[in-house]
Design goal:
443 residues, 37 strands, five-stranded mixed β-sheet, Neuraminidase, five-stranded antiparallel β-sheet
Length: 443
């Protein structure tokens, strides 16, 4: 038998009591879950401005405490109660889940299928061929073609038959940036410089240059921020196909130009040579994809074939998109020069649908961003959209030539050309045959 002293017995009791106490202290209090619960939304689809009723629980009767988001775009709250919230769908929300925030608690509900509203308005121009600078109501163009946009949302326009490069300010005011108005070729100051059917422009935001696809001169021109013109590649008036240093290289009726942001290399849709050319920072012109043989073939580099590629644009993922005009389709080129067809089947026509079911007819202008494309489908007199899943839809235009502002198919175009997108997400269309710049808003 082991004897224990009174002291040891007391010590054992103290440890026992402390152990029991500590066990009681380790228990955390139960925190109630106050996250709002969404049971249903009605309706579950619609355009901007749709009034939606959200039913559920753990909401609040205080509207100031409630926030609602459609695809993470905040909505306007009309009324709230503990079990119901009434809101207005915001513009440009897109399809996505509905989220309710009450105080610091958040709950996510079903998907709301957003229906975009496309509206077309006349942004600038009088609508008759001519030349005039001034505000939107008096300015005149003569077959405006490709366009580019800078960080301040100034739009540069290749005004083909005016033989000038114009600037459209964000308020619609038009000024002449470069060009004497006489067809020909000469470098120099804005009033001295000459172009011959300038067809497209691109903005180099790194070096503050404007590049011009000078189609009739078979040249790539470079303009300083002050408008001083130089010839970057090609021999004026001499069509041909030669790679090499810029001023000894040759182009054939270039119609599209785009600048790759990080390297500031210039890419050219060399329509007459049926290929895409690259003009790098060393002033060397090379062939990026395609050969001088017209055709339709996917592949890498020179194994790919185009037929009069019209316009090009880089997206934010590092792909160069091409409107392959005579092939009536849209092509994509990776940085490794792999060419694939993303929409169109190589025959002229009109049809929406998945990429390889859709039909185009002479597509030209293209704007690429965030996996989506907007294309000027010239002969179809429509503006088409291609989403990240390569589904083609008609955004605006009814297929007949004309002029008319309005939503969707109510709007009319006459041979729409260039397309650019501003910092607000609005698109601008060079309505070539109407001698106008139109604004296309998707919200």
């Amino acid at each position: 038998m082991i004897r224990t002293s009174p002291f040891m017995h007391l010590l054992f009791v103290m440890f026992l009591v402390l152990g029991i106490t500590s066990c009681k202290d380790d228990k955390d209090p139960v925190v109630p879950d106050n996250s709002p619960i969404i049971n249903s939304i009605a309706p579950d689809s619609g355009p901007k401005g749709t009034v939606v009723t959200i039913t559920g629980s753990k909401f609040s009767a205080d509207p100031a405490a409630v926030q609602v988001y459609f695809n993470e775009v905040q909505a306007s709250v009309i009324s709230t109660s503990a079990n119901e919230i009434v809101v207005v769908v915001p513009a440009k929300a897109g399809t996505g889940k509905v989220r309710v925030v009450v105080g610091t608690d958040s709950g996510t509900g079903p998907v709301f299928n957003f229906v975009y509203t496309v509206s077309v308005s006349t942004f600038t121009g009088l609508g008759v061929a001519g030349f005039a600078d001034g505000d939107a109501s008096v300015a005149k163009f003569n077959f405006p073609r490709g366009m580019a946009i800078d960080q301040l949302d100034n739009i540069y326009v290749a005004d083909e038959l005016n033989q000038r490069i114009r600037i459209v300010a964000p308020n619609g005011t038009v000024t002449t940036f470069c060009g004497s108005g006489l067809a020909g070729h000469s470098d120099g100051t804005p009033a001295v410089a000459k172009f011959n059917s300038p067809y497209d422009v691109a903005y180099d935001g790194i070096n503050n240059y404007i590049y011009v696809a000078d189609k009739g001169n078979h040249c790539l021109r470079r303009l300083s921020i002050s408008g001083y013109a130089t010839t970057a590649a090609g021999i004026p008036g001499s069509a041909g196909y030669v790679d090499g240093p810029g001023t000894s290289a040759r182009l054939n009726s270039p119609t599209g130009v785009a600048v790759e942001g990080e390297l500031a290399s210039v890419y050219i849709a060399d329509a007459g040579n049926h290929c895409i050319r690259e003009h790098n920072y060393l002033e060397i012109l090379s062939t990026f994809a395609g050969s001088t043989v017209s055709g339709q073939q996917d592949g890498i580099g020179a194994s790919a074939k185009f037929s009069a590629p019209a316009d090009i644009d880089w997206d934010t993922a590092g792909y160069l998109y091409v409107t392959d005009k005579v092939n009536h389709n849209i092509r994509r080129i990776s940085m490794s020069k792999e060419v694939t067809t993303v929409a169109g089947i190589g025959i002229a026509g009109y049809q929406d649908g998945d990429g390889f079911q859709a039909l185009f007819n002479g597509p030209e202008g293209i704007s690429a961003i965030n996996g989506g494309l907007v294309v000027a489908d010239v002969v179809n007199q429509r503006i088409r959209g291609i989403d990240a899943m390569l589904k083609v839809t008609s955004l605006a235009g009814d297929g007949t030539q004309g002029w008319g502002d309005g939503t969707g198919a109510v709007a009319k175009f006459k041979n729409p050309g260039g397309v650019v997108r501003d910092s607000n997400g609005d698109y601008f269309i060079a309505d070539t045959g109407n001698h106008l710049i139109r604004k296309l808003t998707i919200d």
